[in-house]
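Sat 14:20. Reprocessing the chain from the morning session after the first attempt stalled halfway. Input below, unchanged.
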Amino acid sequence: MDQAKTISEISLDGHHLTLEDFVAVARFGAPVRLTEEALAAIRRSRTLAEKIMREHRVAYGITTGFGDFANVAVPEEMSSQLSTNLVLSHCVGTGEPYTEEEVRGMMLLRANALCAGVSGVRPVLVQRLVELLNKHVTPWIPQKGSLGASGDLAPLSHMGLVILGRGQAYYEGELLPGKEALRRAGIEPLETLVSKEGLGITNGTCAMTSVGALHLYDTIAAAKLADLIGSLTLTALTGQLDAFQDRIHQVRGQVGQIRVARNLRLLTQGSEILQNAQGDRVQDAYALRCMPQVHGAVRDALDFIRSRVEIELNAVTDNPLMFLEDEAVISGGNFHGEPMALPFDYLGIACAELASISERRIERMVNAALSNGLTPFLTTEAGLNSGYMIVQYSAASMASENKVLAHPASVDSIPSSANQEDFVSMGTTAARKSGQILENTRSVLAYELLTACQAVDIRRRLGTHGQGLSPVHEAIFRHVREKVAFMERDRELWPDILEVERMVRSRELLDIAEELVPEFE
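Finished this time. Tokens:
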């Protein structure tokens, strides 16, 4: 069961948002409420911002311009126009729009960050963000245009437009002018932003964190699915189980490796084919024998990335920040995306490894020189039929594309704002391309599942090792076969590909496995 789907409501206080909470709101539409403590903190912070304005203190973005205009004073009577102009001038994104769940995640993270009460915005601004979430008004935000350093300025400016009744937004499946979307949802637009609110909306890592967090959540599921599908391939290839004995993995001590080896033991338990295959050879190739080491390293990477992401879900990332105890207004760099850029690059690299080793397992199944007795390309009439030959080609193309996409975005930087902002993170690019890698990886895993089911059928027809699969493998095999028949002779394969891709992108295969093997993790 998808844990995030079961969460009924989220209370925002700026400190306790988990990855599952985040997905519950962004993807599944769980309602959000602000705690009284958060509202009180926001009010106190706003009172300080207004005091700073009245006293004409020098405070970046409150009584001064932005970026390289930090030395330009702005009079009090123009402070609201200053904040509104920031949003109007910075909404310069381009490209395909972010998905609605990605944008919902951005709004949630911005609201949660403002709940900490150090940003100087009005409660009404945060309440509007929550109202947009709860009434399912989703700003239209183009994907490209963020350097991931002074916050995700361009994407979050597009978000801010809708609060002002400008820009564009989705409502009930329709893309509308922002003002019309608000009208239909019964939400009053704000007439203007006031001092500090332009920065409060736009200055932060909410876009990259939202996009990357969703991809992380789905990559965690993909890693688990890789164990399930890989173990079915192991059966089709009559793999040797000694490589998964616990004592081998305990002496190395890598947590993810120990976890995956345990999964493989659980998933293959009771397999007649595998029991009869033990002793067929001394050891298997790495793509089979080293699944615990490779999949396990991915699991460890995802655990690390999750730890960084869950900090950022509750982080205050705008600038400047206000501290009530001494009324300090401090300019810093919490908007800088480097703490997320590196993990999201790591996310893409880790996910790409799942696809690379999966493609190697596909090759072993279709290559008669490597398949331990299976027919060439899993055909029944070789020569006349090509069988699963080109399935491996397509998987290889996606695994190779991932290698290009896995080049780290974070190693690049380009100066901006007249060299004031001279080192940037490219974290939003890292987050976005981790999603492209994930989609390729899911497709490769789907190809492996399709191929493994064909290989199991061939193995059973050969009858060399018996007929029986483990209970969980039998359930997965039957589930696939309900939609995708054994390929006796060449036919159009694209409908089969679409169906197994749908299975892989849903949680239905994991639900089956978890019900039969509750210890599978």
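The longest strand covers residues 94-97.
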